[in-house]
Design brief:
α1 packs across α2. The mean pLDDT is 84. β3 and β4 form a beta hairpin. The longest helix is centred in the first third of the chain and has 20 residues. This protein has a domain of 31 residues. It starts with a strand and ends with a helix. It has a two-stranded antiparallel sheet with strand order 1-2. A two-stranded antiparallel sheet has the order 3-4. Helices cover 48% and strands 8% of the residues. By secondary structure, the protein is mainly α. Bound molecules: zinc ion (2 copies). The site of one zinc ion has 8 residues, from α1.
C-alpha cells in the first residue's frame, strides 16, 4: 500500500507505518536523544529538552503524548492521585491502576468507624419488633 509520509510527504509503502523509512529512523533517533537527555536531566523543562537535544518542541510534545517516555519534562509531569508518582497521562500510575482494577484497596486507608452506629441501629430495630 502506497502512502505519503506524515512528516516529509514522500511516497512510500508500508502496511502500518505513518512515516517513510528515513523519517521513522530519524524519529527513533530523536526519541532516544530525548529519552536519554531526560533521564540525565530529570528537572529539565520541555523547552530545555528541545533546545538541548535539537529536537523540535512539537516533536518532544508528541513523544510525551505517546506515553513512552519514562521520565517526562518537568512541566509536563503529572502526579498519580494515589501515591504521587510521576506519570505521563491519566490520573493514577500504572501500579495503582493495577491495584484498583484488582479490587485491592491502596495501602493507606483511613480507619473506619461505622461499626458502632450500625449496631445501635440493629438493636433499635429489634426492640421495635419485640414490642409487638
Ligand atoms: Zn518522511
Ligand atoms: Zn500511584
Amino acid at each position: 500500500m502506497l502512502k505519503n509520509c506524515d512528516n516529509c510527504g514522500k511516497v512510500f509503502s508500508h502496511p502500518n507505518h505513518k512515516l517513510c523509512p528515513t523519517c521513522s529512523r530519524e524519529r527513533k533517533e530523536e526519541f532516544e536523544r530525548v529519552r536519554i537527555y531526560l533521564h540525565e536531566n530529570k528537572q529539565a523543562t520541555l523547552l530545555e529538552t528541545a533546545e538541548s537535544t535539537g529536537v523540535a518542541i512539537k516533536r518532544v510534545e508528541e513523544f510525551v503524548a505517546e506515553g513512552r517516555l519514562s521520565v517526562l519534562p518537568r512541566d509536563r509531569m503529572r502526579q498519580c492521585r494515589i501515591c504521587g508518582a510521576g506519570i505521563g497521562e491519566g490520573q493514577v500510575c500504572r501500579g495503582c491502576q493495577q491495584q484498583l482494577s484488582g479490587g485491592k484497596p491502596p495501602a493507606a486507608k483511613p480507619a473506619r468507624d461505622e461499626s458502632k452506629s450500625g449496631r445501635i441501629h440493629i438493636l433499635d430495630a429489634r426492640r421495635e419488633r419485640t414490642r409487638d
